[in-house]
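tool_call: predict_structure(chain=1)
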Amino acid sequence: MVSVAIQGSILASAHEANKPLFHCGRTLSANDRSPVAATDLKSASDLNQQDALSSDSSHTQLSLFSAINLVAASMIGAGVYTTSGFTLADLGTPSRVIAAWVVGGLIAICGAISYGALASRFAASGGEYLFLARTVHPSAGYVAGFVSILAGFTGATAFAATAFESYLPSWSWTTDLPEGTIASAIILVAALLHGVYVRLGTPVQDAMVVGKVILLILFLIIAGFGFPSSWKGLAAVPSPIPFSWSAFAISLMWISLSYSGFNAAVYVASEVRNPRVNVPRALWIATAVVTVLYVLLNIVFVFAPEAAVIVGKKEIAVIAARSLYGPHFETLIRLVLLVSLATSVSAMMMSGPRVYAKMAEDGVLPRWFGFQSQTPAVAIGIQALLSIAVVQVSTLQRLLSYLGFTLSVSAALTVATLFLLKYRGEEIRIPFYPWPPLIFVVATMMIAAIAGIQKPSECIAGLLTLAVGLLVYVCGFGKVAREERKG
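tool_result:
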């Protein structure tokens, strides 16, 4: 995805009827432009036909239930178990933390409705790459794919795997291993699972997601039995610090990472049965259910233990469980956490490479990123290697800030394409239009802007990711891929 300024300049240029648009070494006249942004490699009609064919391909085999599970697995990962300790340090009171999770959930639901409308319009795999390439410009789509490679899936996979390792019990054999070994191993297992055959990976993931949700509900029920006598945080509310909108925005940016998987089904839309109907349903059903779970879980996390014990701590879920019922309950939540994080790694290893495969299908990545039989095995292997590299060089909190900012901007610009499509006169069904996309875009960009001012290093890293992706595109990677494809 491009930044707001870059995207604005592209849109302005594309709509000036009397001026040529220079792109990739050639000039497009006004007659060359179409309502769907044409790419360097194929005409818009060819691409739309290709999208239609890919959504009815031999890869199609995921049910609505599996699509819902994919979204839930992508959402319920590291963020919900690690974020609220940092959030409490910024906001000062548990009630403000819960308010931030509620606001984040409402924004995510607006995003799910908006992405569902885009998925209904473009019923093919590819996510942000597909939506931006077809509506704005191929350069915007290419940068979106680049963001997916570095942040959307590689960074997020590394984050979930690193959290998996941090929540393992301190057994002697785990403490003797070099840091990052177990995180790397879980990434490799997920890559092998989805790289061998999707029919093997999908039922395993479905079973793990169902088990995860059952364990979370069991945790909430047991925690509820101790209310209010065992909830130490209710009697020890800290002195409130002055409310700060900037602190609230930073907290929402971190929380947005926990909700960011709400769009997971769009990355595998070509493999979902009846995608124009089932993908939007999967998005909003899973997002609504996960939002309720998130709010209930965080009520336990921030009110069960004393606030002073969890402020600024990443293992907030474990601390809350230990505070309620001791080490045995802590073991249960560790099991829940490990299953949740494993399914999160698995879900991203399944969905991310489908974006790269779509880019290869369009000719903007080398053809070996595409499907080999039933799976994009090479793309899965590359994402696994990149994720393992990130595991070795970053920390949880820095990954939280970087991913939160970068993915927020990426998602906001994608949803903004709905307004462009409406402006062009396309009939797209969006419930309660224009409120869901408007709320999502405005809220997400405001949060990213405020957080970027407060955390400039992570903001710069995110903007550099966008800029490098655009630079690679401008320098002719699309042309190289096209020549390879022709050859």
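agent: The first helix runs from residue 4 to 14. Proceeding to next step.
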